[in-house]
Amino acid sequence: MKHLVLLTKQFPFQYREQYVAHELEALTTKFEKVFIYPHDHYRKNDTICFDLPPGVEVIDLNQSFIPASRYKVVLPFVLSFFRELIGSKRKWYQVKAWRRFYSAFATQWALGNTLMAWQERQGVARGEVLYYSYWMSASALCLSILKQRNQIDGFITRAHSVDLYHENWGLLRQEHAVPPFRCLKERSASVIYSISKHGHDHLVNRGVDSKRCRISYLGVADFGMGPESNGEVFTIVTCSGIDDNKRIHLLGESLSRLNREVRWIHFGDGPMRQQAHNSITSEYVRFECRGQTTNHDIREFYKNEVVHCFVNLSIVEGLPVSIMEAISHGIPVIATSVYGVPEIVIDGYNGLSLPVTFSDKQIDTALMTLMDDRKIRLLMRRNAREHYTAHFNASENYMSFATEIAAIKL
């Protein structure tokens, strides 16, 4: 393949998909041209937030989006909807949400038209381009419809968490609006690259052909080990949104119960920010909410500041890049053992695992273990760095991935 079209959500116009930037450098070594289509980006006059390597071009196609004709969409939608219904475990949920399914299908049908018109204008032959959806969500649905219409030969997609586990997302809340047409996407993708072994096994257990399911870990750049503690106040870092999935307020409650001198720094923001502040009732806990912070600044913080522990208390996760970043600097991790997380946080080796429905005693005990036992903390620090080097180094993972997809024949 000469060209790659990478479909993201907002990247490179927003900071939320910062990890895509690391992958681009490897992709440009295997393809003559990499086109980035920020598939969920509709705002005008936005500024590109990243320095893109040579050979990368952003195609902001949604500014010329033309709605699809209902007469062309209805019959394919009905056929796809009922086929999806057969494979769904939450049939009543899907029936009630049929309008959302139709809206998604019609929108992606139209965006597919826009994408094919762009390809024709570029003069790119059908066999010279590989379409790659970074998420198995709306962009993968767009490509699935194009495959169904025989306008592309196939595509590849990554699968993370909410775009992968779908029906299991009810762990958080039953009414969560999961991405529609999971079966269509699973059936249409030429290769699905799960970011975790757990995700790979989940797909195979769902009946997806194992030959089309592969594991490709994400990775983070190597900024080196962070400084070792030399008597500083025990410092904890969290890095995420602030919502009912991330549950960082439970950390504040635990630290308040322990009533010890602690510095807690949070990178990120969200609707439950005030609840996070209110969770702290001890005068010994100093909470610093840094808000939205660039990835570079976060990594520089880890590189130059002493961090004793990283905490992730999510109900649902895929395999968090935030934890990859922490262990790359040798920071032990306390995290809930959900989906792919045990592949990066090995209980007793480079951190401590908690059940998703952990008790107050369990989280308090985990925190006290790292606070009180310097020997265990230093051992986990070394192990964390070794686990990163073996499995989550960006340059190695992304070059291997780029080499593999460049050789795909659709």
Quick summary:
This protein is of the alpha/beta class.
What is the mean predicted local confidence, pLDDT?
Answer: 92
> What's the CATH class of the largest domain, please?
Alpha Beta
Number of helices: 15
| Biggest sheet: strand arrangement | 3-2-1-4-5-6-7
* Main beta-sheet annotation: 7 strands, parallel
DSSP strand count: 13
Strand content: 15-25%
What is the end-to-end distance?
A: 10 Å
* H/E series: EHEEHHHEHEHHEHEEHEHEHEHEEHHH
Shape: globular
* CATH architecture designation of the largest domain: 3-Layer(aba) Sandwich
CATH fold-level topology of the largest domain:
Rossmann fold
Structural account:
With 410 residues, this protein is α/β, with parallel strands linked by helices. The chain has two domains: 230 residues, Rossmann fold; 158 residues, Rossmann fold (3-Layer(aba) Sandwich), CATH 3.40.50. 40% of the residues lie in helices and 15% in strands. The chain has 15 helices and 13 strands. The strands form two sheets. Strands 3-2-1-4-5-6-7 form a seven-stranded parallel beta sheet, sandwiched between helices. A six-stranded parallel beta sheet has the order 10-9-8-11-12-13, sandwiched between helices. It is globular, with a radius of gyration of 22 Å. The protein starts with a strand and ends with a helix. The relative contact order is 0.11. The model has no long low-confidence stretch (mean pLDDT 92).
